[in-house]
Amino acid sequence: MTLAVIIATGRAPGPDPIPAAAVPVPPPGASGTASVTVLGRLLGQLDRLGVAERRLITRPDLAPPLRKDGHDPVECEDTAADLREIARLARGARASVVLLPGDLVISDEQLARLVLDAADRPVTAVTVRWAGGRARPVRVDAAGRVASAGSAFHRVSAPTAGFPGPLRVGEQRTVQAADVAESLAELLELPGALPPPIALSSSPDEEYDALELMLVGLVRAGMPVTAQATVPELVCRRVATPEEACAAVETAERADERRVRLRAAVKRDDGWFATYAVSSWSPLLVRLAAWFGLTPNKVTLASAGLAALAAFWFAGGTRGGMITGAVLFYLAFVLDCVDGQLARYTRRYSRLGAWLDSVLDRAKEYVVYAGLAVGASAAAWDGGPHVANVWILTVAALVLQTVRHMIDFSFGDRPRRPAPDTPATPLTVADDPGGTGGTSRPAPAGTAERLSRATAGVPVAHWAKKIIVLPIGERFAVISLTAALGDARLTFAVLLVWGWIAACYTLTGRAMRALHG
């Protein structure tokens, strides 16, 4: 559940007090029909995302046009009152809170990413390519977090992006966000605490923007704020005139948002085999699965079924069975990638699906181990493509892989040393001291982390580090290739040798990280 708080305090240029949110735009795909307003378009998008709880904030002189359009805004005299209303709503919310400017034109996909995809993050701010305009500058660090944010008073050194206004606060951080909003309101009401605001060149407003101040306050309070960057095809832009609104809407409607969402569904940091041997063509299967209405869990079960068939063919011990099993096992891994891509493409996530995928990944691998061992035993009697039974190698490979999984999970669950506290940067300071914006400085990197960062930008080293740990894609590839071209003994020999190298490499790196803290 999500609460949307819309700040419709921006003004359209002209002598009459008209909110920029009431600027007309053509409805999607329509020509010659009645226009809707920028705010009406935004509310329609929220309706389609299932965000039924909304609150609208505006100025007293801007309220009549909004009420004429059927809205029921809360009237606030100034930015301080906006912030106090935001604090009140956030403190009473029992859900995440999305803060949006009322004069925003945003692509459906970009809004969905903010409302639906950022659920596990404390705070998320949409960022755009820094090009001035009605977006305040921000600096995003290498980890994808907002390190410094600007306002009509606060400056940003070396900006890397712009902030057009959309901000999402997770349910676990709404109380802290309310405290930040109240602190900002008190600061605005304190005479001389902040100088008169510096308006943006394209903005007719002459007051501080509540959303910009909220981002500054959250960042300078040390709260982790994830930057959700827009891709070039998507639009996230504040407008003030009908011409600006129409241009932004037309740009948004031209984008193939399904293609953008499909591209984003494919992991960018996957293993080498998954990236080049699967993800290069699996999006075709994702679209086909979505067209047939398949759920990610059904694809997961289909992957497990293919793995079971592969084990059956391996168990025959014939050369044809080994090749057939290898092809089926490769296709099982393809579907193992497709289920996650389909979940991200259709936004049909579930804890059951994540658990099922994890459990069946282990089951698929181990049942194929058994199939290969049975096949080797059968072939040893009739002169098939094996020389003897391989049960000892099978058990050794299974134990090694189980121990590796145990080490991986235990390392992920280990208690971590908290980062040292850093005093928050005062909001009365215009610059971001030290280029940090008041966020906590990262702890000094250990040897393992320094080596990892030093080689991150070298493609050969990047892929070598991914391949050497023998991830699931490479394991499935080893099983398929060695089974098709050799025999079960070769399969388990490669798995054991490579697995021990991977275990030593992983254990060394994690021991160094654990000792460093």
Could you name the ranges where pLDDT drops below 50 across 5 or more consecutive residues? Answer: 418-422, 436-440
The main β sheet shows up as: 10 strands, mixed
Label the overall shape: elongated
- Write the CATH architecture name of the largest domain: Alpha-Beta Complex
In round numbers, the mean pLDDT is 87
- Tell me the quaternary state: single chain
Q: How many domains, in number, for the residues?
A: 2
CATH class of the largest domain: Alpha Beta
Radius of gyration (CA) equals 28 Å
CATH topology descriptor of the largest domain? Spore Coat Polysaccharide Biosynthesis Protein SpsA, Chain A
Distance between the termini: 37 Å
Name the beta content range: 5-15%
Number of helices: 18
CATH superfamily of the largest domain: Spore Coat Polysaccharide Biosynthesis Protein SpsA, Chain A
The tally of beta strands, per DSSP, is: 14
User: Helical proportion?
Assistant: 40-55%
| Class by SSE composition | alpha/beta
Describe the protein.
- The chain is α/β, with parallel strands linked by helices.
- It has two domains: 254 residues, Spore Coat Polysaccharide Biosynthesis Protein SpsA, Chain A, CATH 3.90.550; 226 residues, CDP-alcohol phosphotransferase transmembrane (TM) domain (Four Helix Bundle (Hemerythrin (Met), subunit A)).
- The strands form three sheets. Strands 1, 4, 5, 6, 8, 9, 10, 11, 12 and 13 form a ten-stranded mixed beta sheet that branches.
- Strand 9 and strand 10 form a beta hairpin.
- Helix 5 crosses helix 6 and helix 12 runs antiparallel to helix 17.
- The two termini are 37 Å apart.
- About 2% of the residues have low confidence.
